[in-house]
Amino acid sequence: MVKIGQINTLKVMREADFGLYLDGGEFGGILLPRKEVPEGAAVGDELSVFILLDTDDFVVATTRAPMVQVGEFASLQVVEVNKIGAFLNWGMPKDLLLPYAEQRGTLEAGKRVVVGVYVDNSDRIAATTKLDKLLSPPPQDLKVGQPVELLVCRRGDLGYSVIVDNSYWALLHQKDVFRTVRIGHKVQGYIKRVVDGGKVDVVLDKPGFGKVDELSQRILDDLAAQGGVSPLGDKSQPEAIYQAFGVSKKAYKMAIGHLKKLGRIDISPEGIKLLDD
């Protein structure tokens, strides 16, 4: 089934002077204009194309890839605001409409806004800032430590509200933020826990000892390169730790604590020291 507003893999049905017609199922032949046809494409080939409506409301294909597809969320820049609504740059020749009815707050050209993308009743692709209606409850089979993609949407008293895997809300607590987090950015994260009521907490570092083995080896390598000593201990500033290893102070302390238990290092107020094997 062909999905408007998404990338589809379609077979070439026939060739015409002005392009290729792709098998669009219920939509019939979908035109891929000649200027978009990949070199060497022929009847019977399967092509990866984005499907949308043109200015005359015909379903057409393009080999251009947008910044965001239907069912996804992204931070997009406002190009223009007029009597119809706001128009957003989404990497396509025709800007994406954010209707007034789908807006929250005042928008102006040059600003960025987090939106979800959907298909309206006339099969046109549009954007909305009313994100809740496009999101679902968290799945029941989430596991602690599971890797996920996070879109940072807004900041509150407890931390950042994030969209997980283009699917559901979660909270990134302020106490778990160890580096710069910006609204609209997509970052790698991990499931921290599922709390009462099905709410989900996430973190930027893998919980528990999941990352310790890799990080521990990096610490040992760094110690060896510095003659066996390092000023970075369990009392060091989080910024210094992150600058050196790109991890939170909590993750670093877990790693050096593990190395100490293994008898590989000694920890003192002055830092850490590599012990003889």
TrEMBL record:
Domain Conserved virulence factor B-like winged helix: 217-274
Domain Conserved virulence factor B first S1 positions: 4-63, 70-130
InterPro entries linked: CvfB_fam, CvfB_S1_st, CvfB_WH, NA-bd_OB-fold, WH-like_DNA-bd_sf
Pfam families linked to this entry: S1_2, WHD_CvfB
Protein origin, superkingdom: Bacteria
Family per record: Belongs to the CvfB family.
Protein name (Swiss-Prot/TrEMBL): GntR family transcriptional regulator
